């Protein structure tokens, strides 16, 4: 609940133009949050950083065979892309659409492990996770489900996008998974099959009668 209050307060603060002296802001964070929450390949890292109440850095990474990370610096709105660093088939690529932000972007890229992105006290940096916590699927968007650790059927999870297509696999004992709903999943790889239905995994293998 605290997480949602934090997001709401940030949205209200930025959309109402709360900023430092001479630094009027009109950031509407909601489009950034929606984009991040619906992004593919974001299971390892999915964080938004609001910088000086006038810039937004989106840091995303996941377990994917292609395009498994990207960092994008935005201006006042989601259509104003200033700089971008991303994985590609040709290797890491960095593009500066606005050269005046090159120094700040490079510093942030080199310090993604630090809450202030290495920018120092002269910059205000507010990090926030784009994946809200949840208890049930009802806490998430209709395209998401409340993903939890295996066996944590009653625990707290995070809202993640449901897979649209699961890789087909030969049905074997290793492909089966028992969902928290008591059903065995394995038409595809079990864990993905269950996630597509919005169901978490109670344990690997078929459900025991």
Task: Name some characteristics of this structure.
Wheat Germ Agglutinin (Isolectin 2), domain 1; alpha+beta; 4 helices; 209 residues
Task: Please give the structural blueprint.
Blueprint: H1 2-15, H2 30-37, E1 45-51, E2 55-61, E3 69-74, E4 81-86, E5 93-96, H3 102-110, E6 125-129, E7 133-134, E8 144-147, E9 157-161, E10 177-179, E11 184-185, H4 190-196, E12 201-204
Antiparallel strand pairs: 1-2, 1-6, 2-3, 3-4, 4-5, 7-9, 8-9, 10-11, 10-12
Largest sheet, described in full? Answer: 6 strands, antiparallel
Q: How many strands?
A: 12
What count of structural domains?
A: 2
Regions with little confidence, pLDDT below 50 for 5+ residues: 1-25
**Alpha-beta classification:** alpha+beta
Order of strands, widest sheet: 5-4-3-2-1-6
Mean pLDDT, as a whole number?
Answer: 81
Helix percentage = 10-25%
Per DSSP, the total helix count is 4
How would you characterize this protein structure?
The chain is 18% helix and 26% strand. It folds into 2 domains: 2-129, no CATH class; 133-204, 2-Layer Sandwich (Wheat Germ Agglutinin (Isolectin 2), domain 1), CATH 3.30.60. Mean pLDDT is 81; it is low at 1-25. The longest helix is centred in the first third of the chain and has 14 residues, at 2-15. The protein is an alpha+beta fold and 209 residues long. The protein is elongated. It has helices at residues 2-15, 30-37, 102-110, 190-196, and strands at residues 45-51, 55-61, 69-74, 81-86, 93-96, 125-129, 133-134, 144-147, 157-161, 177-179, 184-185, 201-204. Strand 2 (55-61) and strand 3 form a beta hairpin. The strands form 3 sheets. It has a 6-stranded antiparallel beta sheet with strand order 5-4-3-2-1-6, with helices on both faces. A 3-stranded antiparallel beta sheet has the order 7-9-8, with no helix packed on it. Strands 11-10-12 form a 3-stranded antiparallel beta sheet. 27% of the residues are buried.
């Amino acid at each position: 609940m605290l997480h949602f209050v934090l997001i709401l307060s940030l949205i209200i603060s930025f959309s109402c133009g709360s900023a430092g002296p001479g630094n009027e802001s009109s950031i509407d964070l909601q489009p950034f949050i929606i984009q991040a929450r619906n992004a593919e390949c974001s299971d390892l890292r999915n964080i938004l950083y609001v910088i000086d109440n006038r810039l937004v850095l989106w840091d995303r990474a996941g377990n994917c065979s292609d395009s498994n990370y990207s960092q994008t610096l935005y201006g006042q709105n989601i259509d104003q892309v200033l700089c971008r660093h991303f994985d590609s088939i040709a290797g890491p690529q960095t593009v500066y659409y606005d050269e005046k932000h090159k120094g700040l972007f490079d510093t942030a890229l080199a310090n993604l492990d630090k809450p202030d992105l290495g920018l120092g006290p002269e910059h205000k940096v507010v990090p926030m996770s784009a994946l809200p916590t949840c208890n049930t699927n009802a806490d998430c968007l209709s395209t998401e489900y409340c993903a939890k650790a295996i066996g944590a059927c009653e625990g707290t999870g995070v809202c993640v996008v449901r897979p649209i297509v699961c890789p087909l696999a030969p049905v074997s004992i290793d492909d089966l998974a028992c969902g928290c709903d008591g059903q065995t999943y394995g038409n595809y790889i079990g864990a993905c099959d269950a996630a597509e239905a919005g169901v978490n995994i109670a344990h690997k293998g078929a459900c025991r009668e």
